[in-house]
Batch of 2 targets.
Target 1
Amino acid sequence: MKHAVVIAILVILCTFLVHTGLTNIGLLPLQASVQAVAVDQLMGIHIWLISFLFSLIMVTLVYSLIVFRRKKGETGDGAHIVGSSGLEVAWTVIPLLAVITLAYIGARSLGEVRRIDPSALQVKVIGGQWYWQFQYPEFGVMSTELYLPVDRQVDLQMTSKDVIHSFWVPEFRVKQDLIPGRTTDLRITPTIIGKYKVLCAELCGTSHAYMEGAVFVVSQQDFESWVKTQQSSIPMDPVLRGEQLAQQYGCTNCHSVDGSSKIGPTWYELFESEVELDNGTYVVADHEYLIRSIINPNLQVVEGYSANMMPPFEDTLDQPAIEALAAYIESLK
Ligand code: CUA
């Protein structure tokens, strides 16, 4: 009994010591969103639990090694102990209750994190190898930087252009995969004005580690002026708008505009030319052909190129954007 009391006291002391250590080495980054509070509460409980379990095991182990070691002159075997119903019930019931309690707290936190605010700001997130892109359909704005007004929930509707990526801003805590062909969502209510970084948390190829994007949490006023600046940088002329889109969406990474050879067919003098398809037929590259090829490039594949090289832009670009791109391609002669 004396040993049990000593061990209990040592375990309690050690638990507080380990807990103080763990909470003071800066395990967690800044807590900068409403959702982060719920996540950190869970994390806090777990840090207490692991401090206790670590202490329970280590204190008992070290205590036994020292106090019950073989003394000089002792040669016999140790006491032979068989079974203990009380102990077995205890180590079954206690973890069971712990798991049920954690499940309850976890479910409650999940509800907190996924709480939907109907007045949330809508932002579409597109991930690709290796970039982030953010669209604000309400304002017709597109950006490679994520601007968010402080203290307002943002509803991120996310999808991927190619492979699975994962949207993660450590300061906001929550994380969500971006999956090609599917839309996933994430809700964040940033609470602290500042500059953050969105990281990709899913291994997605050679430049995965560099797939970062700037995130700015700003005042409502600064957000509005940013939107205005962005809107005024959108050219009214469809050809210029198309040129801007071609760069923003990476079209010109694969399609040259001067006739030179790249991954995809050149756009130079493409309009109204005769194009040979991979099934041996010919088609005139008229306006409809250009629109069709942007929406679904795998429908008519040009001879010498393979299907599935270019993603369909049906869901990514709206009608005016597709028309603007076609207008730009038509101007290249
Ligand atoms: Cu995208 Cu890793």
Target 2
Amino acid sequence: MLRGRRVVLGVSGGVAAYKAAYLARRLVEAGAEVRAIMTPSSRHFIGPHTFTAITGTPAITDLFSGVSPHTELARWGEVIVIAPATAATIGRCANGISSNVLAATVLASDRPLVVAPAMHTEMWEHPATQRNIETLAADGVTIVGPGSGDLAGGDSGIGRLVEPEEIVAAVEHVLAAGRDLAGLSMIVTAGGTREPIDPVRYVGNHSSGKMGFAIAGAAARRGAAVTLVSTVPYLADEPGVDVVEVDTAGEMARAVWGRAAESDVVVMAAAVADFRPVNPADHKIKRSRDGIPTVEFEATEDVLAGVVAMEERPIVVGFAAEAGDLEDAERKAKDKGVDLLVANDIARPGSGFGSDTNEVTVIDADGSSESWELMPKDEVADKLLDRIRDLNA
Ligand code: CTP
């Protein structure tokens, strides 16, 4: 369950900080990638090298090291778990006070947060701490513990850090939420293909790959195993996305067809060339020597049709870039035999190539269509994945 998942472990300054080392070890043993961040006070209790050695990555101790450690870690992690969380750290997190590297990372992150408090009973029961805990809970933060038992300095009562196993279980629970596509294997294509004329020139199109990237990233975050077949480099470094880089329609066809039988879903978001130059030149065509060339075209492989024609085929989602003709898209959905066709009008403002938003009409195999308002491509991706999940049910 934790295999390959990215966990940021925040350690703040309490005696229980030594237990955070054990927690780091349990997370690593469960297959998680762990990166530790330590508050300045935590270093009175445990050294950073302990976490560096256990996690295999240098523990972060300073907000002013590197370019921007807090935003970098916030983007990297799928979850942040703070154990032990002192009253001061809880106060910072509840009130958005980014005065050290851990609190700044929490403020820079939109990912789930798990907090395991540890402090003396008086501090835990203080109205200020209770207010802060209520604020965190209202923000959707998962609070684990504290438990009761022996505390520092020979005291006992409520305020003890819960055992690492309980914290691991909370992290697993948080990471499992929203993973409604777990077990689904999906191919997503993205970008425009490039068909060579000679070694330096090609016939291409304006597709940026953004829609396919949004679908691949959202599907992976929801638990699907994604193979992204792309003509554009995918820089997001998202866990759960395997990238296969291709250039031409032929390469894309081979990459998709070779994997389609083992996939549950194929989403053809790429703008695949319909024609390619016949016999591309093996040398750069020279104006001075060769004059103006005549380029002859031939049909490319129809990647989507090849998948639809498979005997036991995955769910197939096609895309259609239209210029204002919904009827044409409805006909296309039928003719192509896809389960869903996502039509967008590239002429509309906010919907063209390279845009971060899209306004689409989704047509199903029965020909019934649903038009969605203009929204960010990430939201289009999630809504489309809801439809795909329902088709797969
Ligand atoms: N597609 C494909 N292989 C191709 C061309 C297109 O798999 N050689 C896929 C695209 O990825 C897209 C869908 O087919 O999901 C629709 O592409 P589109 O170019 O709109 O369809 P065409 O049948 O080429 O329609 P048109 O007649 O408008 O060109």
